[in-house]
Amino acid sequence: MTSTLMALLCLGLSVGPRTRVHAGTLPKPTIWAEPGSVIPRGTPVTIWCQGSLEAWEYHLLNEGHSGSWDTQMLLESRDKAKFTTYMTVVYAGRYRCDYLSPTGWSEPSEPLVVTGSHGKPQLSALPSPVVASGGNVTLQCASRLGFNRFVLTKEGERQPSSTLDSQQAPSGQFQALFPVGPVTPSLRGTFRCYGYYNNTPQIWSYPSDPLELLVSGMSGKPSLLTQEGPVVTSGQSLTLQCRCDVGYDRFALSKEGARDPLQLLGWQPQAGLSGADFPLGPVRPSLGGQYTCYGGHSLSSEWSAPSDPLDLQVLRLLQLHPPPAVTAQ
Question: Is 63 left (phi over 0), alpha (psi -120 to 50) or beta?
Answer without folding.
Answer: alpha
